[in-house]
Each structure stands twice: as C-alpha cells, then as structure tokens.
Amino acid sequence: MNTQARKFHMNRGAGCLAAFFCLLFFILVVRFLYIQIGKEAYGESLEALAAAKHNQEGSITGVRGKIYDQHGEVLAQDASSYKLIAMLKGDEPIKNKEKTAEKLATVLPLRKEEILNYLNKPLYQVEFGAAANNLTAEQKEQIENMKLQGLRFTEGKTRVYPNGDFASYVIGYAKAEENKKLKGQFGLERSLDKELQAENGKVAYKGDSRGLAYGKEHVVPAKNGNDVYLTLDQRIQSFLEEAMNKAAKQYEPSMLLGIVADPKTGKILAMSSKPSYDPNKRNISYFLNDPVSYAYEPGSTMKIFTLAAAINEGVYNGQAFYQSGRYYVGKIPIRDHNGGYGWGSITFDEGVQRSSNVAFAILAQNSLGFDKYNQYLHKFHLYEKTGIDLPGEGKNTILFDKDIQKITTAFGQGSTVTPIQQIQAATAIANNGKMMKPYVIDKIVEPGTNKVLRQTTPEEVGQPITAESALKVRQLLETVVTSPKGTGTLYKIDGYSVAGKTGTAQIPGKDGKYMSGRENYIFSFLGMAPVEKPELLVYVAIKQPKLKDTEFGATPLSDIFKSVTKNSLQYLQIKPSQVKDVKQLAKRENVRVPDVQGQAMAAAKLLLEKEGLRPIVLGKDKVVSQSSAGRDVLKGDKVFLLGTENKMPNVGGWSIRDVMSLADLLGIQVKVSGSGYVTEQSIAEGTVVQNGAILEVKLVPPIEPQASEEVPPAGT
C-alpha cells in the first residue's frame, strides 16, 4: 500500500476513535444530567441511598407504666428479659450436647431429656419455647458463667410482678406480642392498657462514611406509660393471701374468695380468689375474677339487708315471739336449718342469732310486706351492678315474681348476687346508712411530671337506712357472734367487737336440683369491726371444702376472717381498748329471772314474758317449782314452770343444756346419743311424766341455714 493510502486509513481510524470518544462523552454527559435532574439510578433514589448512608436513626424504647399499691409499693413493672438460642450449626455450634443439657436443666424449668430433644433437632439453631423466652438478668448470668459454647441471647422486654401470686386476678398480666410491644391481656393490665401503654421514640443524626456523627441531632422522645396507683394495701393484701393460701392447701375447695374494704370510702383494700395463678408464669386457665364476676345464691348473709329494712321501717320487734320450725307458703314449707324442728316459740332477736329462715320469712311477708321489701332491694342496689372499676363484673338475678321467690330471697336462696354487691350494700350498715361505691383505682399519674391525670374520690350511691337503724343492725349482728345461741361464735376476735352474719348456700346441680352432701355448699361470712365505728368490712366465702367429720364450713372461714381482721386492725393501729362494747352489750341482754313460785300459772307465764323470757309451762294450777329463779340469764332463755300433772313438752330443736335443765326439774333421767340439737325424743309430747322416768334423745349437729328442699334453685 502506498504512503498516501496508508495515511488516509490512519486518519480515518483516528477520526472514528475520536468520534467514539465523543459519543461516549456525550452519553456520560447525558447520563450525568439525567441523574442530576432525576436523582435516580437503576430505579433507586440516590437521595434515599445517600440518606441511608449518612442519616443515622435509632429507637428509644418507652417504658410501660407501673402499677402500685396505695402506699407506692410496686405491684407490676417492666424489666429486661432474655431469650436463649442454641446454635446447632455454623462457626461455633454446641459441642457437647449432653453436658449442655445437664447444666441448662439447673436453670431452665425443663428436664435434661427435654432440652436434649431441642438440641438434637436437624436445624441451624433452636429456641426452647416459653421456658427460655423471658429469662431474668440473673438467669442469663448463671448460664453465661457456665462457659458453654454455642449459646446466644437476644434482649427484649417483659412484665414483672414482684409479689407473684398476689391479687393476680385484680392486676392481671401483660406480655410481649410479635412486635415485642407489651400489651395487657387480663385484669387491670388489659382494661387500663391505653393508660399504661408506652410509645417508643427515636433519635436521628447525620453521619459520615465511618458512622461518625456531625451536625444537629433530631430527637423524638419516648412517651412512657402512665403509672396507676390502686387502693389495695400491700400489707392487708398479704394478710388475706397468706390466710387464704393456708386454707386452700388444707381444705382444697373448688373456690375460695375474700374481699376487705374500707366502708367509709368504698376503697377495696384487698381482694383475692383461689385457685389462682402467677402472672410471671401466666399459668392461668380460669379467666373470671370471682369476687366481682361470680353471682351465686348468697345464703343467710342476705338476711342482713332484710333485717335492716325491717328495723328502718320500724316494724321489727326483737322481743316479740314467733313459732320457729316451719313456715308455709301455700303448701310449700320453709324449714329452719335444724331439720325444720326449730326451737319452739322464740323471740325475733333469737331468730336472728340462730339464723332462722322462718323469722325472715315472717319479716318479709307479714312485717314489711313484699312491696316495701322490694323497695329496699332497690335501695340497696341489689338489682344492679356496682360499676366497680374492675373488668368483668357479673350480672346477678333477683327472683321476685312468685310469693315463694319473694320469701326465699329474704333469706338468700333462689336469687343470686355477687360478692362485690354484698360489700357495697353492707357499707350502708357499717357506714351509718351511707352506701359507698366500691373502687380499686385510686389515681393515674403521668410519670416524670407527677401530674394526676385521674383521681377517684369516694362516691356515696345511696342512703337506704338511717344512721340510727344502721347502729341497731350492727348491735344485733354483734349478738350473732357473742351470744351462745348465735351461728357466728367462731368469728369472735379477742379484744375487738365483731358484727356479722354467717351464710350457707346450696349449689344447683346439673340436673336442676340442689346438690346433696355436707360439703356441697358455699359457706360465707360477712363481718365488720369494730362494731361502734367499723374500720373494716370483710367478706369471705368457700365452696365445697373437704372437711373432716368434726369440722363445719365455718371452720376454714373463721380462721381466715379472724386472722385477716385482727392483723389488719392492729396494722391500722386500731387499739383493742377503743372497742369495749362487747361486755356492755352482753349486760344489756341479761335479765334476772323473777321468783314466781306459788303464783297462778297464767300470771307467772305473763310476768316472765314481760321480762323477755320464754316460759315453758309443764303443769296446771299454781307454780310448784321453777328453773333459774333469781339467776341472771340471757333474754329469750327458757324458764320451766312445774305445776301439777306435768307433761312432756316437744324438745325438738333444743340444746342438751335445756334438756338437762328440764330433766333436773322433772326428776327424770336422760340418755343422749349424738351432739348438737334434739331431733328425736322417746317420751312423746303431752305424756304425763313420772318421777324417775328415762328420756332418750337423739341429737344431730346443725347445718347452716338452708331453705327447704322443696324450694327450686335459681332459674328453674
């Protein structure tokens, strides 16, 4: 090729190369301009990429609000928790699985074999389920000190309840959800979740390629949850928990509950139910708080409100006599709790002490009248919920259509109420007629500022009776505890006066009939102390306790009531010397028996009745001999009058003391079998008694007041 041709080709090649570089430069410029204007490359925002590289952001974790008792003792709070993970493959897997399982079993609530099952799975890593999901810092440290290879921890939040099984049905529990945020699941933790819930914050700043910060930080602070203060008193709650745990262990009931309230304000100082659960473990299977949720037939504690209505209406005459034993509503008999034998003709005061169903049937139907009695059921708010600030309050049923329902309601059968309804109604008795709404949430406080966002103040919800009537009810209920005839003698507390009422309610079975058997009842006691100015109102109930042959339903309850009430009164610095009306009240009940020997039988009987005594006329003509002449006895006690042609009375329902007093006067012998009250006698009523005759009597122990078996269960 000649020189000119070679030069031409070289120039053309150089031109092409120059053109190529010009085109490439043009493309780069266009691309640069495109990126500069569009701020995007390969479908991704360059600004976002730059922000991700230089803008750093961190999360600030908020803390869920704490729950305190009324004195600021922590009942629930947040804490760090740790999840254990075992690496089975990778760079540093577990080497010795046997050793690892053996050592972990000393910390985790798992057996060595269960841990090995996890470690032998064909996975890259394994977790150990709930057993290792919420480990404490102490547990984490224990495991770390074992120097085991292949174990890792991830940190999270958990809710801690320092007292464990302590008012757990009131407080409830919270747990972390999938987003690791704690959320209330039960009890106050759930109903107050919005108030307790925290909001996480964040911090943002600019950083260079090495992560070093420059420029101004932008902080959105976390918002901690609000703190909740309850009316519960940790000391009084502890007294209740300890006493109930002891009873639950010993008697294995299907249900056990207790409430302690301040009747002047309505504050709930303690509340518990068994079986229970530990909110740290969340080993819960029953999701009802029985003291507020469980509506059942209350039994004779309901008589408190019937008595209060009669006293307030001025129709109660405690010294008037009535015939105990049975009372008929049409053809349906209402029986007293000693098999319907009763105690003969007794005063209404004695009927209250003995918890006579017949006495309260008469008060409701004849003294008050059903319409007036129903008005008092409304005044005591027994038709409606209390509105307590706890979730899950149950609805009760007052049966008041038929006459039999109206009468059985008067002594606590057929109709149902919740324990918290009884507490509210009883505040009127303990608080001089003023009925206070029960509440548990004292205040909600903003953390940091201590600003009170919500404060509960005591609320009077009615005044069903006067202060004078309330005092009379308390004084009469005190004799239920102090009188030898009272059903509440087991509830006496040394140094403190107690007013209260026992209750025993039958349990409807699946067949619609009441269950039988001496243990198939709900036994209860509603009491207040001290009597003159009650500081505490206490309700305890136990369902189907396993009792020894020598025990009654009151046995476990009296232990709980006395322990909780006495310890609490002492803790509140209520001195025994401040309550000294027990002896004075006993004196008011005493009466000296007049000597009526030689008087005509009718005149002697009238004189004794005027003194509040119960004459038992055995013979005719003049009084030849009598019992207890010149002695101090309780009002309503029997006085036997001996004349001519003396005849055997009906001793059914009598105590052995009365039988022996009769036998001494008649000059006869007594053979006794059993204990309790007389149910059978060998010498028939009306038989003329000869000196030296033998009277055989059979006694049975009392069952706490029941309606007759002819009365249908609630709802049937």
Automatic annotation (TrEMBL):
Domain of life: Bacteria
SUPFAM superfamilies: beta-lactamase/transpeptidase-like, Penicillin binding protein dimerisation domain, Penicillin-binding protein 2x (pbp-2x), c-terminal domain
Compartment list: Membrane
Keywords assigned: Membrane, Transmembrane, Transmembrane helix
Top enzyme class: hydrolase
Gene3D superfamilies listed in its UniProt record: 2.20.70.70, 3.30.70.2110, DD-peptidase/beta-lactamase superfamily, Penicillin-binding protein 2a (Domain 2)
Protein name in UniProt: serine-type D-Ala-D-Ala carboxypeptidase
